[in-house]
């Protein structure tokens, strides 16, 4: 990765354990595609529901040559009670889009 991984926490304090988990997921993407130029992950707790507990939303922004890839844990921006599951799902969505990107790049070679 040309730029260092950026991790932003919104509506919550930073978590070293969560940051380590995110770094691990980002490393897996780099093993999958070596053309990643940058990655920014936003973990947010947009609403604090008293009855429903905490909810989390995660967004993964990847930059590859000629394209920006955005991965949400779900297209409808579903929020999770488990922040680690939200991270896993967001990286899975990014991985699918990255797979599509690498398939297109290989087709044009």
Description:
The protein is α+β, with helices and mostly antiparallel strands and 109 residues long. A 4-stranded mixed β-sheet has the order 1-2-5-6. A two-stranded antiparallel ribbon has the order 3-4. The protein has helices spanning 16-32, 83-107, and strands spanning 6-10, 38-44, 48-49, 53-54, 57-64, 67-72. It has one domain (6-107): Ribosome hibernation promotion factor-like (Double Stranded RNA Binding Domain), CATH 3.30.160.100. It contains 2 helices and 6 strands; from the N terminus they run E-H-E-E-E-E-E-H. Helix 1 links the parallel strand 1 (6-10) and strand 2. It starts with 5 loop residues before the first strand and ends with a helix. 24% of the residues are buried.
> Outline, from the CA principal axes?
elongated
Average pLDDT number: 85
Order of strands in the sheet with most strands: 1-2-5-6
Tell me the count of domains.
Answer: 1
Helical segment count? 2
Amino-to-carboxy terminus distance: 22 Å
Q: If you compute it from the alpha carbons, what radius of gyration comes out, rounded to the nearest whole angstrom?
A: 14 Å
Tell me the strand percentage band. 25-35%
Q: Could you describe the largest sheet, including whether it forms a barrel?
A: 4 strands, mixed
CATH class: Alpha Beta
Order of helices and strands: EHEEEEEH
Which structural class is indicated by helix and strand composition?
A: alpha+beta
At CATH level 3, the topology is Double Stranded RNA Binding Domain
Could you give the count of β-strands?
6
Question: How helical, in percent, are the residues?
Answer: 25-40%
Uncertain segments of ≥5 residues (pLDDT<50)? none
CATH architecture: 2-Layer Sandwich
Identify the CATH homologous superfamily.
Answer: Ribosome hibernation promotion factor-like
């Amino acid at each position: 990765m040309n730029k260092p991984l950026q991790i932003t926490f919104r509506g919550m304090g930073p978590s070293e354990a969560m940051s380590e988990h995110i770094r691990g997921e980002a490393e897996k993407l780099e093993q999958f595609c070596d053309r990643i130029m940058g990655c920014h992950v936003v973990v947010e707790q947009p609403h604090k529901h008293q009855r429903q507990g905490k909810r989390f939303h995660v967004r993964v922004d990847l930059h590859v040559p000629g394209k920006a890839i955005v991965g949400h844990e779900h297209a409808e921006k579903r929020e999770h009670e488990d922040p680690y599951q939200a991270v896993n799902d967001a990286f899975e969505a990014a991985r699918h889009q990255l797979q599509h990107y690498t398939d297109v790049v290989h087709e044009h070679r």
